[in-house]
């Protein structure tokens, strides 16, 4: 599979994992001891799914690194920040400031510059 396609899959897996982790820990009481909090979080199906996505994404990332220059792939992976921010806004209903939107736009512009200025293959 082409390196860019693998990279995009990694981005979506990473962002999805982060949103699942956040949703999974949202209902956890902070009144419990630290160990109890972690055990409660780890028993959440959403947290478990998020962690599994991360593990799968890490394995897929190894394939990306095998096929592409890390100087190309890793900056493009910053699209995870954009997808997590959008997911937090539209799925988790978090509030955004104008500066956050500007930051997301700058990340997208930076990714575009890298995407169109280099070849992904070593």
- Backbone structural class: mainly alpha
Task: Please tally the helical runs, counting DSSP H or I stretches of 4 or more residues.
Answer: 6
Distance between the termini: 15 Å
In the residues, how many domains can be counted? 1
Q: Indicate the mean pLDDT.
A: 92
Main sheet: strands, sense, barrel: none
* Strand segment tally: 0
Categorize the overall geometry: flat
Show unreliable segments.
none
Secondary-structure element order, N to C: HHHHHH
Beta-sheet strand percentage? Answer: under 5%
What is the share of helical residues? over 70%
- How many whole angstroms does the radius of gyration measure? 17 Å
Question: What distinguishing features does this structure have?
Answer:
single chain, 122 residues, mainly alpha, 6 helices, 77% helix, 0% strand, flat
Describe it for me?
With 122 residues, this protein is mainly α. The chain has one domain (3-117). The protein has six helices and no strands. The protein has helices spanning 3-25, 34-42, 45-67, 70-76, 79-90, 98-117. Helix 5 packs antiparallel against helix 6. The longest helix has 23 residues, at 3-25. It is flat and about 50 Å long. The two termini are 15 Å apart. The relative contact order is 0.17. The model has no long low-confidence stretch (mean pLDDT 92).
């Amino acid at each position: 599979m082409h390196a860019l396609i693998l990279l995009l899959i990694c981005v979506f897996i990473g962002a999805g994992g982060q949103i699942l982790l956040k949703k999974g820990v949202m209902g956890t009481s902070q009144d419990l001891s630290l160990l109890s909090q972690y055990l409660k979080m780890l028993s959440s199906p959403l947290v478990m799914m998020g962690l599994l996505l991360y593990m799968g994404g890490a394995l897929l990332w190894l394939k990306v690194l095998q096929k592409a220059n890390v100087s190309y792939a890793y900056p493009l992976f910053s699209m995870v920040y954009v997808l997590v921010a959008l997911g937090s806004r539209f799925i988790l209903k978090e509030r955004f400031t104008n500066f956050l939107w500007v930051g997301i736009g700058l990340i997208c512009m930076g990714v575009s510059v890298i995407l169109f200025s280099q070849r992904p293959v070593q």
